[in-house]
């Protein structure tokens, strides 16, 4: 029934080609979830459902006792969520949210089946329940490591290089003051772990406080709190529009850059979508903020015309010059 209602709504109100960033005009896109997240382990929350079913020795029967009714309901919800994930409905990053519905249900049900006494008895008791619990814990742990191993073997785990990219990017933005042009990102991390037992030391923090993005953050702290303030990133501010790795999926490259300035300053951007030359399609984050929302060069008067539509009166224009932040402020009088 749930599946029927969802697909009826989907056919009646199906997304248009520009509604989702990754939407390609097809009703389904098999394994679309992997294009967005790039990890087999995105399916790992289903381990909790399997764990619960193993704990209660689940089996399907038309006339079951009440506990099995809950398990059967959970299994139906799990199957439906898995279908959405596999078929790529919707073709957006929110497709991953379907995995959390059965996960949220299964966790309290698992907790209700295992007591602290059971964990205590793991070390000494040998009754059937404890034996089964040991097997389930072993299966769960093995499965988690299996997911991680598959991700690493297929080289599709983006987290593996994230820390090195953080070091590399901040070194670049701080004019090579972090690595001093003589060590690699891996050596920097390894040395810090050996000497300071941490990845990023105080020296790292001090050297990045003067980079371009830290300057934006400092600007936001000096800005008077006002709902009529907005920020504009011109097309030529390439430190923001090009802030991505060449190997990043096009989906992530286009989607994540939109959030940089709002996350740093806590204010909305005006004309906050990518300049047209980047070839990023419209999607949920930009479609709701007036039409033709791509960043482009405008005169101050035309910028104020646009600002008036969303009730902004002060616009901070963020520019770059030799990796430093330069700002202009436009006050709109309307």
Summarize the entry for a quick read.
The chain has 334 residues and is mainly α. The protein has helices spanning 2-12, 32-37, 46-55, 66-87, 100-113, 116-121, 128-154, 162-173, 185-196, 202-208, 212-222, 238-241, 250-257, 260-265, 284-287, 300-309; strands at residues 229-232, 314-321, 324-331.
Helix-strand sequence: HHHHHHHHHHHEHHHHHEE
Low-confidence runs of at least 5 consecutive residues? none
- Mind describing the biggest β-sheet? 3 strands, mixed
Number of domains: 3
Helix content: 40-55%
How do the strands of the widest beta sheet line up side by side?
Answer: 1-2-3
Overall, the morphology is extended
Mean pLDDT: 76
Extended strand count: 3
Helical stretch tally: 16
Content-based structural category: mainly alpha
Beta-strand percentage range? 5-15%
The rounded Rg comes to 26 Å
Give the distance, in angstroms, between the N- and C-terminal Cα atoms.
54 Å
